[in-house]
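Known limitations

Structure tokens in this collection are predictions and should be treated as such. Users comparing against experimental data should check residue numbering before alignment. To illustrate the layout, the record for Pentacotripeptide-repeat region of PRORP domain-containing protein is reproduced below. The input appears on top and the generated tokens appear beneath it.
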Amino acid sequence: MKKRAQEDPVFVGDRTPGEQQKCVNLESDADVNIVLDRISPGTSEDEVLQSLLSDPACDSLQITDNFVNRVLYRFKDDWKSALGAFRWAQSRPNYKPSPELYDKLVDILGKMKKMEKMRSLLDEMHADHLISLNTIAKVMRRFAGAREWKEAVRTFDELGKFGLKKNTESMNLLLDTLCKENRVQQAREIFYELKLHIPPNANTFNIFIHGWCKVNRVEEAYWTIQEMKGRGCSPCIISYSTIIKSYCQQFNFQKVYELLDEMQGEGCVPNVVTFTTIMCFLTKSGAFEEALKITERMKSIGCKPDTLFYNALIHTLGMSHRLQEATRVLKVEMPRNGVQPNTSTYNTIIAMFCHHLQEESAEEFLRDLESSPFFKPEVQSYFPLLKLAFKVGKTDEFLKKLLNDIVYKHHLSLDLSSYALLIHGLCRANKCEWAYLIFEDMVRKEITPRYKTCSVLLQEIKQKNMYEAADKIELFMKKMKAA
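Generated tokens:
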């Protein structure tokens, strides 16, 4: 996915198969590319180290923390190359990696579930007094992510060995790590042991509130707020808003309003994020009139809307067929209140008009977005119009213009959803030759199509007796299954 910016634009319908396009190389990491070119995929970390040590071109590179950081970023999903390149950098005279780079390598090894390697690196860091609480946080997180939560706890127990303290901050890191991996019950049991000699703070309880909500035990989250109060910690907007969001996800709006009243009774005034969440879920539930009343509730407590709230309001008005009011929000109300729209604001209103088959209005707002000096369109800005083109049967000049604007005018790369939409839509429109060219560009850009997309295209290609293309698709599908 990362390579797309460097490669040819997608075929948009006005070039013939085999035509070449100019490739613009936007890559500036020339020094990093020298290292990448010397490493063969699948080699061991020792082979990577030796290949770099024996190459004269690598000897001429200037090794800095910035350089090593960029190398590790490029190898973030390849632990052997990352470790080998790190060892090579370590071997260079007058260079010693910073503790932050060690932490980054620890994270890469943990992410790839190389726990013994991670442990070994941790011991090496300990010998050089490089371990910080940030290191421990990464180690605990990776153990928990690998379902080795007992190892995460053991790492916390060894804090003293690394010269670090068991205190509220480090306890919270452990609890947060466990809760984020849905081990809330285990975190709770550990907390009951630790709280005897480590005092909790408001963040401790907020960690549990998030954790209980994450595992859909919202009542436990609510009782955590009561426990929080009992220990002299005041719940904040985040505490309440987390639970409100969980009740919203359950469409339990009675509880939402009860909690809003409780918040205000406690002197904890809801903010615009809280109200935006409520409006979005009311709209999702189809309660449009109730959603629009949120604006008045906000005004009654002096809470001012921001861009995200207005985006949600425009969406709600669009869903309730109030297109003129939605337009007024963007053109009148937002400027009057000094709130700047963003690309998502225009995406929302473009999608709204497309949903109601008002193509000209959608294009008008797209032109406003394209000409704005403050923000630019993204692929998602065009997606509703692409869908509309297929819906109303405009699969010739209109569709070609949209795609040319995306790729050539604004230099945007189509994403997986856009490619799938195009291939499926063109197949339905009996234009599978064009669909196949788009499929080819997609594969060339290393964007893997969904299996269903391949299957749909294959059926259409066979009906057109495009045997060579069908063979290529079938081979690709076999590779997908084997992977």
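For this record: Confidence is low (pLDDT under 50) at residues 1-27. The longest helix spans residues 467-482. Please report discrepancies through the issue tracker.
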